[in-house]
Amino acid sequence: MADSAPQTEGKTDTGDTAGPGGGRRDAGPGLFIGRLFGVPVFVSPSWFLVAIVVTIMFEGQVNGVVSRPASFAVAFTYAVLLYGSVFVHELSHAVTALRLGLPVRHVTLHILGGETSIEREAPTPGREFLIAFAGPLVNLVLAGLGVLAHLLLPLPPVGLLLVDALTFANLLVGLFNLLPGLPLDGGRLVRAAVWKFTGRSRNGAVFAGWVGRGVAVLCLLAGAFIATYRIDGTGGAGFGWLGLLWSALIASFIWVGAGQAIRAERVRDRIPLLDARRLARRATLVTAETPVSEAVRRAHHDHSGALVVVDGDGRPRGLVNEKAVQATPEQRRPWISIGDLSRGLEPDLTLPADLTGEDLIAALRRAPASEYLLLDTDGHVYGVLVAADVDRAFAGV
User: Fold this and answer.
1) Threshold 0.85, pTM exceeds
2) Which residues lie below 8 Å from residue 293, measured CB to CB, with a gap of 6+?
3) Are 257 and 210 in contact (CB under 8 A)?
4) Region 161-167: what's the mean pLDDT?
5) Is the bond leading into 183 cis (omega within 30 degrees of zero)?
């Protein structure tokens, strides 16, 4: 099973975190089922597909202990309990992050396990290590409790079957997530170690990302071997095509997550270079009653790339959406006021022109929009910052 880690990367196992943002997340990546510790919990529709597959596969073992149709109910119970272990894994990431002062956006269960999305990156390698290790540790503890239950409790056959299956699953998930490559928890442990040794978070992420790509290749090769190797060593059908398909799915998930982690660091390298003044478009000031055609003519005359609506005293009142202007047919532009294509200036859409780097990114995240008004230190309009221009700067265009 796979998991995803805190911050903006992906990951494979049963718990993880990622990405910036904020606010309520009752609308998110799947079916909203509730909140725990203030964290929204979602179940992706893909989980139901996995639950059906797990039920069908496990029913063959249950049928030797319980007759049909009760065997299907027991097998489905196993599928639910299995993802219960995944959920506890993810929740351990979330709770640890919260205890360390990092806001958590949501927890999601999906086809490969789960993901815990954390608002921002851990500030120290020690906190990164603790958040990453919390998930696999919970799975290993659950596996240990399963062993104790097997040895000490007088369980009926069906109870013993469930306990043993869940014990093996938690042991497998815990160990798998400790593999040393992003986006797995083990990769985040490697990242924290390299970060601690070198003093740079970037070094740890890039190193763990490349290791993650190696882990992806090994997972695919291991799946191919298991799919074709018989226990007696003669070769043949072995675990079959389903095992190969599953290993390929997990390998691709790890490869993509590792690549995203590497690319994220390249993007992060560009953040200090971001400068609102350098990215700003020159703005032409017009009143709301100005026809669109006249406003566009003035912008062309001024060689500006944005329009700002002002009142009679020259105070900015709105931003004109570039796409809305482009979508207005030329023959209608003389009859439409530019104010009809503008957006009111909310407080978070007015930014100081001197913003750079992380401060600029934080300001844009607080209030996602297509355009922002930039004011100079004296309060006058400096220009307009267009989100698409910032995206192109990130992409290196």
Assistant:
1) no
2) 330, 333, 334
3) no
4) 93
5) yes
